[in-house]
Request: fold
Amino acid sequence: GNSVTQMEGPVTLSEEAFLTINCTYTATGYPSLFWYVQYPGEGLQLLLKATKADDKGSNKGFEATYRKETTSFHLEKGSVQVSDSAVYFCALSDRGRGAQKLVFGQGTRLTINP
Amino acid sequence: NAGVTQTPKFRVLKTGQSMTLLCAQDMNHEYMYWYRQDPGMGLRLIHYSVGEGTTAKGEVPDGYNVSRLKKQNFLLGLESAAPSQTSVYFCASSPPSGGTSYEQYFGPGTRLTVT
Reply:
């Protein structure tokens, strides 16, 4: 079945450091790919998405490119801030009719120190 | 708009007790979902609904039942709680679509502990 694997956490960085969180997936067909973020005590919210190969999703300084050849969707940010501390989830969505079903990675906890 | 709301926020149950978690959304979304979040496992889909009066099983449906009597509400029931059901439960909703690129909107979660 479909699956998503994220890099092990937790990740701790200093403010203004460069961030990469790796995400690889296994899927049949051509799924859409997402990054969701969960701030402390809150539900998940969509950070960015890409729907086809070579698409780049971006939001709030974060970027991720849909790489079909390497089945990857790595999350990057050039200069992180303390406010970026959160848990980040990579997810894929099966294509087809009916309700969207998301398959999530295990999540990566990010802590940014001032 | 309140978005997606969940009731209650916290609950402690004894093994064998029953309870119902309520999810409500005010965005007129057709699709609604229940997930559980466990450490190191991400979120897993329990049940979902594609419209009022319809429900379907997700990845981990055993021990749970759901109902969607009204479009805006999606109820998750535990008939006989077990310690393995200790988790954080999230409800989500999304607009109707034949595609898969639509955002799901999540509630704040319910933390359930079964002793």
